Amino acid sequence: MNSNDLMREARIFLYGNGRNNPPTAVDFDKTLLRDLLFNHSSAKDVALASVSMRPIPLEPVLEKLTLSDTNYGSIRRFYIKTQEDRAISMYLQKAMIESDPPERVFRLKGSDHAPFFSRPQGLHKILVEIAEVPPKQTSGSTTTELRHLLENDTL
Q1: Is residue 34 within 8 Å of 46, Cβ to Cβ?
Q2: What is the spatial distance between Cα 71 and Cα 19, in angstroms, rounded to a whole number?
Q3: β-strand partners of 25
């Protein structure tokens, strides 16, 4: 079963406003979580995730976002490809990267959808590397601009 088939099989739509209305949330069949999201994670981590996961409301996911260069564009972005992710295929990860290119792309081999479970040391190493990437030189103070955005709740 490929990742698309697995995703279709695992998702469960919830209808908070009745079956005659569009679904309001999506949940996942707990018996398929290991195959879909945690295919490289330990049994203990899968058990923890299974009892911790909640349905995902669809309204925020479907909401159209308007992003500006002033706010969204001012934040440095990096992407960590999870090489063995069955929930977000390599094809989709590539498309996401190409549609909104980050400053840098990292690859985490042997990682499933949850690298904090499947490859915590590798993820830590990448996050430390990201923290050490020197800021790009820009005109004006990025720190001052970011502080202004945060204080005015416009980020």
Answers
A1: yes
A2: 39
A3: 14, 57
Report how far residue 56's alpha carbon sits from residue 20's, in angstroms, rounded to the nearest whole number.
Answer: 20
pLDDT > 80? residue 151: no
What kind and span of H or E run contains 57?
Answer: strand 56-57
pTM summary value: 0.77
C-alpha angle 11-13-17 in degrees, rounded to nearest 5: 170
**DSSP codes of every residue in 64-128:** PP---TTTGGGS--EEEEETT-SSS-HHHHHHHHHHS--SEEEEETT--S-HHHH-HHHHHHHHH
Biggest distance spanned by C-alpha atoms of the chain = 54
Give tens-digit pLDDT for 99-124.
Answer: 999 999 999 999 999 999 999 999 99
- Local structure of residue 41 (DSSP, 8 states): S
Q: Which residue, 134, 151, 130, 148, is CA-closest to 70? A: 148
